[in-house]
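Record pair follows.
FIRST:
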Amino acid sequence: MSRRLRRLPAVLLPLVLVAGGASACGNDSGSGSSSSSSTGALSAVSISGKPGEAPKVTYKKPMDATSLQTKVLVKGTGATVEDGDQVTAQIYVGNGFTKQKAFSTYDAGKPQQVTVNSQLSPVFADALKGRTLGSRIAVTAPADKAFGQGGNPQLKIGNKDSVLILVDLISKTKVLDAPQGAKQPAPAWAPALQTDGTKVTGLDFKGTPKPNGKLQSAALVKGDGATVQKGQTITVNYLGEVYGAAKPFDESYSRGEPASFAIGAGAVIPGWDKTLVGAKVGSRMILAIPPADGYGKTGNAQAGIKGTDTLYFVVDILAAG
């Protein structure tokens, strides 16, 4: 989803969305517990423990990574990760120069969902795509290759430091290409959809009654998948338009890739949290969101939204995990 509509967790912005400038090369190893005694950048560190458990990382010396390299420390026996999958993974990030842990989802108490698509940075693309569930993958790289020219100040990683990233692949969910389920009649308050195949291109407010100030939602397609739970990461296509407007203020259909974010966790506007939790995967939802459940009295100037505007959204729920 566009940054104007959500708060992206600080650690995920560089890890997932910033494209690096190098390609990676991978090597497979056996299954079981990981214990690194590799050459190259990994020779500076010892990594032990089983995938799915917090790794024990011991630095023998400062790490010197001159290129982005990927190595499978433990090869899992689960299903293969493919394009379009939403993967649940545990992630460890270490600063190879200071020999300090910078971030770990194990410490945060919750794994991370990552969607495998063309927007994924090389750091994660090679670590995930074609790998098997149950694997532990190690990535070593100069900071500028992993995070961009500025490194990652939020993680206290300078642009000249080396980075160690460990990824444990826990599970995966297939992301649907389009809504999947039974079509439902549109409610009287909803605008008509302008479409191009399965994509929504706009909303037609002709004949649509004026907003009543209430938060409203309905399924135009009632999905046949699992129920979305609070705190899950959902993957969606969406379009948002102010009541009576001639064009959307934001949408994802034309980008070619859906968006992923936490739901029911305050990461998006309240109207989304209140209406999408409890919906079914595969659903196409229509939402009417008054200012109190959108951007409040201040609106969102960047998106051209005033504090009195009611927002209408179409949301296709393509995965949840």
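SECOND:
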Amino acid sequence: MQEPSPVAPGSPARLKIAFIKRKKFSHINASLRAQLERCFPALELEEIDVFRDFICRRPDVVLRNLFAILRLYGKDILHGQRQFQVCFYRTPYIFQAIRRWLRSRLGPRRGEFAFSFATQSLYDASIPTLPHFLYTDHTHLANLSYPHFSPGSLFAAEWIALEREIYRNAAGVFVPGDHVLQSLREQYGCPPERTQCVHAGINFPEAPPPLQNDGYRNQTIAFVGIDWQRKGGPELIEAFQRLRQQLPEARLLIIGTSPSVHHPGIHIAGRVPIGEVSRLLAGASVLCLPSRIEPFGIAVLEAFACGLPAIVTRIGALAGMVCDGETGRVVEAGNSLALADALGELLSDPEKCRRYGEAGRRYVLENGTWEAVGNKLHNAINASLSEQDGSANQ
């Protein structure tokens, strides 16, 4: 299917893309929207925010979902084993409610759209007979590959069965990392021809500033993340305390969260605007992201863009982005001793930091831009639409 040509004033409205999202999705939604608009300029984009346009306007649905959450997960929430907000989108009730709402809103207008495109795998945004595509950074069953994840922590089986429908109803599923691609194919039975790794890009609004780290000699470690526990913050603190015995001038800069830690060598920047992240990273010598569970880890790409090496755990997409001994170091999750050794190795060798950082910057230029992601999406979506047109005309 070729893109529609622009229409003259007074002509029927041009076809649209139905872009279905939920909130910011770590700034990824804005980047994907911009790429869809860039790569499909003949199509008009109509944005639908599930949270803003449905959840916030339907207190009755929220109340009914509260009872569904309590029925499925109430005991776990009471014992502190699950968080209420994480369970909100993991009930069959809210899944079906969102699907009915989207289909009632878009179904009668399906002829206005060339295709639909959704982000995150929390709801099924497909409309029958309308080609539908999905970009997601995770699957629920991918959690089983994490060493610290217990199978008993999986969400309800009836919700996982509905999650399978999200992928089954999509003409194409796009992911940022190979571990999610593997999960889709092996754990959900998605055909390889309908799944593709297209990577992700950095979210900086401007080019990163020059490094201000005294030629990688300032012994400053940067941590970037909102979820302190999931991203291995406690292990980093333990490793940092060990490191200070070797390098008493080492410092740790925490960006994105404000944990209750007190140490003279630790500075907590907390939540900052995305444009401020690159300035803070420019004052560090290395990024450390020792995640326990990690769908992607875009902070690694952001550090690479600044010219910093990265120390990560062998979790999710992290080990695929960081080449051990070339762009940083990869250690086993939960091993604070190995983490401290890796930090000491790099902070004691500014030349190695510079070499790894330059290699990381090259990796970003080749794989970590949203323009590259957009081009892959454009090619894959056009190929899928052309194939569907061919099948319909036979």
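COMMENT: DSSP finds 14 helices and twelve strands in the chain.
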